[in-house]
Amino acid sequence: DVVVADNYTFNDLVYPVTEIGQFSFRDKNTLTSVKIPNTITSIGNSAFYDCSSLTSITIGNSVTSIGSSAFYDCSGLTSVTIPDSVTSIGYSAFRYCSGLTSVTIGSGVTSIGSNAFSYCHKLVQIKNLSGQTLNGLPSNVGQEILTDETSAFTNTLTNEGKYQTFVVGDKKYLMGFTAEADRTTADDFPSDITDIYQYAFYYCSSLTSVSLGDSVTSIGSSAFSYCTGLTSVTIGNSVTSIGDYAFRYCRGLTSVTIGSGVTSIGSNAFYNCDKLVQIRNLSGQTLNGLFYNVGQEILTDETSAFTNTLTNEGKYQTFVVGDKKYLMGFTAEADRTTADDIPNDITDIYQDAFRDCSGLTSVTIPDSVTSIGSSAFYLCSGLTSVSLGNSVTSIGSHAFYSCSSLTSVSLGNSVTSIGEYAFSYCTGLTSVTIGNSVTSIGSHAFYSCSSLTSITIPDSVTSIENYAFQECSRLTSVTIGSGVTSIGSNAFQYCRGLTSVTIGNSVTSIGSSAFSYCTGLTSVTIPDSVTSIGSSAFSSCYKLVQIRNLSGKTLNGLPNNVGQEILTDETSAFTNTLTNEGKYQIFVVDKKKYLMGFTAEADRTTANDIPSDITDIYEYAFRDCRGLTSVTIPDSVTSIGSGAFQYCFNLTSVTFETTTGWYVTTTEGATSGPLTLTNTTNNATYLKTTHVSKYWYRK
Length: 699
Prior knowledge:
With 699 residues, the chain is mainly beta. Helices cover 2% and strands 29% of the residues. It contains one helix and 61 strands. A twelve-stranded mixed beta sheet has the order 28-29-30-32-34-36-38-40-42-44-46-48, with no helix packed on it. It has an eight-stranded mixed beta sheet with strand order 51-52-53-55-57-61-59-60, with no helix packed on it. The mean pLDDT is 93.
């Protein structure tokens, strides 16, 4: 629970809290209730965005504005009262609040943004005292909109046990669980329920068991979408219709029986149920959008037995198809912290097998396994250790996507392919060993592995696909094997830590933007084997000053950096000078001595020992040095390039040894100054925020 304070103390002075800033509580999924005091006047954009566990919100009587997307996707909210003090509700403010059934809008509201309540599929009681139109409001069954304070709703929303029900005419809808309900089972529906309402159990990922009573005639659209804990469902003969997406993304669902009474099955009712292998469809209706999973059987009578085999072995569910034995995932009751005892006759880790097992910390894959399916360990955010057996040949797309605690991976010599997004967003990954049998690195394979510092691509690899290493911002060293023939578009884009790249003699094509925004790149060699260089391949490489281009191809979009040399033969020496002095990289051009930034190994927390003969701090020199806290600019410096301290968010102190005569100018030529640079805190703000994109010079 959160009670927002009405004041705070700073330097012995008390200040009122008047605003909840944008993104203040975004994605705080443990937040259950919030009380906003009467001192608050505004709730910022996306302030409570995706607080999915939030069930109660009390808005103080001084709030005048609710920002756009302020409560977007707060799916646990069931009721909201907006006080008369509020004058504006931003667009999408309560969008996708799928549990919201009742709302009161105060009389003071003069502006309601578009889609403020769109996709609130259970919103049936609306007291709108504002007179404003609710654009994008879903037309839910039994919905009533009252425009005065005294009238009572005639529709009936009640709690029965752990369920919320809703009576409209001769229909009784089950709307979902009550806020306090145990959500692991739904086996005790009231016996007079006629319809499971749309989105009734949407995203109830802990739901493992459902029993539909004999009175139920329809299952609404998305009623059980994302109920990933469901493994088996029987739809009785009383049911006549199954809505669109009713069981979409029920990734744990392996078995379903559809009764003979069903006359209508909506589109994609079982879409992305990628473990659904046993289907008894007695309805005669087509299952549109059904995933055709390996070994899947569809029977159309009551008596035939499935020939495929789903069994539990210890804490794992396994599935035999021909000579393959798939590991499907954990059993429902299993301890999910480790997977170090996988049966040694498993041949394949099935797609999504351990998906979203955030508590899983270690995995040992036996030598019997030959493939790891797509998304097999997707979002296993606690996974720190993976041991791959010696027989794995393929790693599927998204296999280890966003395993943010994984620090090192060794891909043995048996591995031949790395799928797209296989290790994307493994932000803790510092070390990767790629075996010498890998032939292709899929698109986005290591996208945004922001802690990865070096990579060696073996000679066996022939292609580095698009975006393969994009946003690997700490990558300082890349060795490209002699077998690589193509480097895809954006393959190393935004690898800001790269300083030097040598492209092997087998490469024939470099894709568009392949190295764009490699802002630390100072030197590159392009061999004569290259016949195609895409547009902007090296654009925004602001420090690229030594280029050996043996290909004869034009480098479109290349920035015209100071002192830049382009040589077209193998033997000529560069005349410009790039050297390391202490922890800084230096570049001498004529009588100018530029500070280009830190060396790769440097401690980046301070820059208080800049050489005393530096004349210029080059553009983007310290860009993205987020740990940098203090800087001293020596007397010798007469200019600071644009963006030199961009994204140095923790920079708090900058000392200018010469505090007078400084001016700033924009790219359009507008000049301001002289600046007052005696306050070290203000100086830091000027450099990283106020004048970050301007060119600084001293007269």
